[in-house]
Structures are given as C-alpha cells and as structure tokens.
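Backbones bend. To wit:
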Amino acid sequence: MSERKVLTKYYPPDFDPSKIGRTPKHLRPTGPKTISVRLMAPFSMKCTSCGEYIYKGRKFNARKETTEEKYLNIQIYRFYIRCTRCSSEITFKTDPKNMDYTSERGAKRNFEPWRDPTSKELQETDEQRLDRLEQEEAEAAEEEEKNAMEELEQKMQESKREMQIADALDEIRTRNARIERGEKGAKEEQALAVARAEADQARLREDAELDEAARLAFQRENVERAKFEEEQEVIGVQAQQQELTKAVPTFEKVVRPRKANGMSLVKKPVAEPTKPPEVSKPAAPAGLGLGAYGSDDDD
C-alpha cells in the first residue's frame, strides 16, 4: 500500500517556484463546469469509430457537464466517456421526458424492439393485451398438461418394457438350469439332498451336545446344593448341642446340714478336688457333736 501512496513529488533541478503564478481571470477557460464521476453505461451501444460493442451496465470514469437545457425546470446533464477499444469520445445526455438517456455523438444505440413505436405490442390496447396474455397462459397450461400426459405414457411403456425383459430373462435362466440339470443326470438334486441330510445331522448333533451339557450342569448344581444343605444341617445340629450344654446346670457335691441346739449349720457346696492327705485328730466324746465348732465357755 505504501508504494501506491505518493507522499513526495519529484522536482527537477531547474524548477523555479517563482515562475508559477495564478492564471489571469481573462485567460481562464470559460464554459460549463465539468465534474469527474463514476457511472455505468445506461444502454448498450456500438462505437461508430471502431465498431466495439459496449454493453449496458459497464463502468466508466466519466465527466459530467451541466447544460443550459431544461425540461420542466429539470436540469439536463451531458456525460463524456471513452471507448474501451479506440478511446474515442462518446457523449450522451439525460432525457427526463422519457425517463431515459439519448446518445449524442461517438456511438450508436443498439436496437431495442420493446421501444419501437411501430411494434404491435405498443399499438394494442389494454384489453387486447389482457386477452393475449390469457390466451398465452391457457396455451402454456395445455402444453404442460400434454407434456405431463406424454411423460406418464412414456413411463408406463418403459415399465412394461422392463417387466417383459425381466420375464424373458427368468425364462431363459430356468430353461438353462433345466438343460444343465438334464445333462448332469440329476446329480444336483442328489448333492442337494446329501447336503440337506448332513445339515440335519449336524443340527441334531448340536442339539444332543447342548442337552448333555445342560444335564451335566443341572446335575452338578444339584450335588452342590445337596452338599450345602448337609453342611447347613450339621452346623444347625452343632449349634443346638452348644445351646443345650449351656442350659444344663452342673451338679456339685452338697453336704447335708447337721442340727445342733435347734440351729442348722450348712456348709457351702464344695467341689471335690483331689483329696488332701488325712490328718489324725482326737476322737470327740460321744453324744456331743460340737467339739469341732467350739465349747460352752465360748458362748
């Protein structure tokens, strides 16, 4: 972008700015004022110098000039363009009366039939135009219906032809198969029967294997279940035995009390451990059982 932007200009060595001055008023060009504009060709035209065709809508760098002509106080402008081939000048003006443009010099406007005043379309009235349009629409609808019927008929014929071809192919195939079967001596049927028998045997074998596997699985499951039930029963019996052993009290040796002076002396039950060695004691007097517990003096 910097290459296209000219920031400095070249001044030759012999340049003298004092020699540059304003042009006197009497030497200035007089005439209508022109402005540079960008526009598109308003109509298709042909250059009168080289014969180049310029289509409508082509863009040009043009000069716009205000003229002294007016229509209903509407200013008329003139435009100057250059031919794209020979660079000859082409001019055209605005035409506010007809809402169009008119070619002046350098080019010839191409023929446009819709603008020909002698054409029948411009001479006919509105009613005639409506009748003509209705007639054209009716004709177009009839043509579309005819085309639709023709397409439907063609599709039906094509479908019939395809069905006939398919039937013929099926007949040819069956005939060829019949001929081959007759030449081979019905070996194909035998081979087919053998293959079917082998397939049936294989299917029966697979069914038997599956049944045997299911039976073994069920038998194994029953054995495991019986073992589990036996173990549970044994565990239950052991638990019951333990509960019974806990509930039954142990019977220890109890010494009956002896009566002395109307009082009962009871000894606590003592288990029978290993007997200690016996010690000889003096015999108590007969008729008295209190020798071992004390005397009357103690009372």
